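Let's inspect a concrete specimen:
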Amino acid sequence: MPAIARPVMEGGGGFDYRLAMAIPDKWIQYLKEYKDEEWNMGNIVFTLTNRRHGEKYVTYSESHDQALVGDKTLAFWLMDAEMYTNMSILSPLTPVIDRGIQLHKIIRLITHALGGEGYLNFMVQITTGTSHFHNIICLIIPVHQQKAEQRFTMIAQSYHNQ
């Protein structure tokens, strides 16, 4: 929705932030269509910084939606089947796992640095013995933004009290 994070007096929705929803799709597109040596950094930077002036954005590298609709997470796109056998500290580090972990870190770093004024991190907690997945959402916004920090604290407290 255009101008959702602009003041109501300007015809906007009045929200403090909007989600930069094109970014996770861009990362998945790059992982599906290109080798990492072929990534166009200019296009990636443009996607991460292309936003309306004056609107604050919360960005994220991947979302639980990707896994829910049958797609793979970033980690599985990068490391695939080796995640099942070579992610233990008891097994030697393979080139696929090493490269996948490093690229995963780079993707998150670039997204966090260029994507907006906040970063949304999706983590999946797997309950052992069942097939239940609990999505944990962690919103990181600069500390000087008092209201957002208070809201995050309330969300975190309500989650831990469940």
